[in-house]
Amino acid sequence: MTPRLSHALGVTRQHRGDELFTGSTEEVARRLLGQTLVRRIPYGRPDGGARVAGRIVETEAYLPLVDPSCHAYRGPTKRNATMYGRPGTAYVYFIYGNHYCLNVVTEPPGIGGAVLIRAAEPIAGIDAMRRRRGERPPTDALASGPGNICRAFEIDLECDGRDLRAGDLAIEEGAAPSDTDIGVGPRIGLSAAAAWPLRFVDLRSKSISPFRRRVR
DNA sequence: GTTAAGATCTGCT
DNA sequence: GCAGATCTTAACG
Asked: Is the CB of A189 under 7 A from strand B?
């Protein structure tokens, strides 16, 4: 949809079409850097609700078909079912008995690729993030690391399958880093295909997760 | 039914 | 730098 048509239809930026999520999984992983992750937590809750937002500064691509570390590598299962859905859908899973991880589905329906969101730089709702993370982490680190993002943004399995183009969990337009500010390196914490350069970071950010040194 | 591994985080050495 | 926590998932018998 063209910007002009979007405007004519009264469609806001968060309701725009698929352009942010189309293309190869690697392209999407790179493109998501600088975009804004937004979480709307309903007001009227005991904690008062909040609008929490952060700038995405670290991503990893999990490729369709060829990538043994991609959850879709061995075909559909109950856990990975949402990975085979529409690009721009949230794929959330639970790991290590403690943590949730947020992914963005890529690739056409039925294929199975995703981008893991690994770190975000807090923009709004910092008090709300801190209520969930505690006093210990510095502001820059409130949403650094895939598990920490989900804690800070209150993302759990209930978010699995949500459309990230709109709604209470969404990715909205932000300022992309220049190519020279993007670092590329190996993915974190894998045993298979660990060396593949599919991790993308915004080198200017203080919020990228503590494995910064592994970026070349 | 059982088991082993896992896209992590924290705290301690 | 390393180990422990913690439990779901999926593979295997």
From this structure: yes
Q: Which nucleotide is the nearest neighbour of A188, by CA and C1'?
A: B7
Q: Measure, in angstroms, how far nucleotide C12 C1' is from residue A97 CA.
A: 22
Q: Record the tokens describing residue A53, joined without a space.
A: 């937002």
Residue pair A177/A150 in contact by the 8 Å Cβ criterion: no
Coil/strand/helix, residue A155: coil
CA angle (A155 as vertex; A17, A109 as ends), nearest 5: 40
Tell me how far apart the alpha carbons of residues A113 and A147 are, in angstroms, rounded to a whole number. 20
In this structure, what token pair is assigned to residue A63? 């490729």
End-to-end CA distance of chain A: 37
For the record, the structure tokens of A29 come out as 């992983």
* pLDDT tens, residue by residue, A95-147: 999 999 999 999 999 999 999 999 999 999 999 999 999 999 999 999 999 99
Contacting residues 69-128/A vs strand B (CB within 7 A):
69-71, 83, 91, 95-99, 101, 103, 114, 116
